[in-house]
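Progress note, project year one: complex with alpha-D-glucopyranose.
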Amino acid sequence: MKRIITQAAFGAISIVVSASSAFASDDMVALLRRMTLEEKVGQLVQMSSNDLTGPDKGQGGIDEKLDFIRKGQVGAVVNIASPDKVNRLQNVALRESRLGIPLLFGFDVVHGLHTTFPIPLAESCSWDLELMQATAAAAARESYNAGVRWVYAPMVDVSRDARWGRVAEGAGEDPYLGSLIAAARVKGFQTIEAGRVGKVLATVKHFAAYGAPEAGRDYAGVDISESTLRNVYLPPFRAAIEAGAASLMSAFHEISGVPCTANPHLLDEILRKEWGWKGFVVSDWGAVDELRTHGFASSVEAATQKAMRAGTDIDMCSGAYNASLAALVKNKRLDVASLDRAVLRVLEGKKAAGLFAQPLATQNNEDWPQHKPLAMRAALESIVLLKNEGNLLPLAKTTKRIAVIGPFAETKLEALGSWWALGRKEDVVTLAAGIRSLVAPGTEVRVALGTDFRGKTKNIEDAAALAKWSDIVVLSLGDPGWNTGENNSKVSLDLSLPQQELVRAVKATRKPVVVVLTNGGPLSITSEVDSFSAVVEAWALGQAAGTAIAQVLFGEHNPSGKLTITFPRHVGQVPIYHAHKNSGRPPTQPGGSHYTDSPSDPLFVFGHGLSYTTFAYENLRINPTEPKIGQTVTVEATVTNTGKRAGVEVAQLYVQDEVGSLTRPVRELKGFERVSLEPGASHRLRFTLTAQHLGYFDNAGRFLVEPGWFKAFVGTDSNASLTGRFELKQTR
Ligand code: GLC
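Model obtained:
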């Protein structure tokens, strides 16, 4: 029996004295002392490729705007990731500015630079922390080579609202899992590679609670309690900080009336004073000047003053800092100490990135064949088998006639997700090509799109005719990558209307159908799930998409993905998630809360994911059953592969604090273990719970661990029913 063990023990929340705790090194302090006021301001200004090189005229021409660099008025650049362009700008900074301080080049390397991995939400469904660290490290390897020493990732925003398009970029709805993934990705991005000077700097974003916008609409305000902020939205940020994240991005929105970019509670009280973090904060694009649009600052000067005082160190592309920061300091409306502190944080970051020792991009390779196997593995492990009635899957490779129907049957760009960076759609293996590559010689595979996503090119009749011709239909539906992500929120989670028309036509043929979803977040595919036997959630899997999906469809790979975000039956249920409160009249009890037009439970719960084998759980044991506060509690159970083929199971542990000074969720994820089991084999699971797992923050920001009864649930998803109880006792 071979076991893949990823025992996810939630690290005790303690301030890990990070490498940058010796905040300012002598050489950087000495450099600061040589800087003029204008040069200090320059280090806090970020400009875009457009600001510095004009609209890219194709020949990569760089116009006179480079004077900003010559005068030391810019310290960081966003959206340049070609080594020769990086080096041309860098050499201007090194050779033509007075102090020769290197520029820091940043780019949105969210799920790969040249090699495109699955979108982060997809990868989170692998629950494989080692995998997610490895793909981040690969992305950073490619970035460093391209001259990008600063990536705007990982995005760690917990979200329970699938209307918000940016769920695609995160790790789903759970703070515990999201914290472990945040730490893994930070460690991956900031890997110190042998033979390299410095490292790529990660940016944990978007601080904070960006995933809870009013009505699911991007950039809209967030209004949550302090306890919800601290128990749900902050943990992944803290985990990223403890993993050594070098930078953090403040978010666009406001929390309870105070925009994040000028929010002292977030940026100073929590980030600096409570957590002791020494890295640098960059605003999101234009967010400093947007303080005026928020109605939080009456002028650019006021916006600059508020953002700097709160602790936003770099102004990303709003123009506010380079327009007004020097004057504020001269007029004593901003003290030099806060300016110097911000500049030192940035200089330390540049030093950690190796820019003073090795400022130039060294290679220009765009092909990374060594990353292809990893892209394939990530795609395979991200796939979630949602339904498989009558074991329709896996398909036989000798099936005579296979119809691949739907707008994503031969999709390339759409499989790259919402942040495809420099990924090339030419590198994407389509679903149809993946299927063709695996079937037997006598099998005929035909394709009919039936419609595109918006219905501009519709030919439903041909698609229906092809379905009638076939022995089995692979129906490829979903939501294209360019329709997900930033500022792509939705009021409906249904499939587009042309796709719904196609579904009805294919259903009418009464052929066996496997639905394959290409999407960036939960869809309310209730009728499709009811209509067809098998449903595979394939997300936007990146360049290996078609090959990976085909290997799952034909059983070469046994799927092991588990949902990290709840699928609603209807958008009207949103926000809907596993760690919800019970209320005084839960839907589960007679006369409890309910909808008149829909069941209250979700379509697919958090943690759901099927396999081509089956697993059983038994023999749960808790020790001790009356632990004292501060004592470690172990929860054990046995998982067995009760099917006929090997498989990987993500066994999950949930805990409920039955009574608290604040009401507590009906259950919360507090452990998981990825286990590979041969048929008939068993594994004894062992989870450890510490005070950090059992406690919670109250509305005064205090972390409470309270005596009383707790339930533990172990199983295959958040409906786990193998249960035990223990009573946490006061220490005497
Ligand atoms: C965008 C996004 C942020 C990204 C930044 C730079 O608006 O909100 O995630 O890193 O700007 O592109």
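The longest strand covers residues 647-657.
The two ends are 45 Å apart (CA to CA).
No further modelling is planned for this target in the current period.
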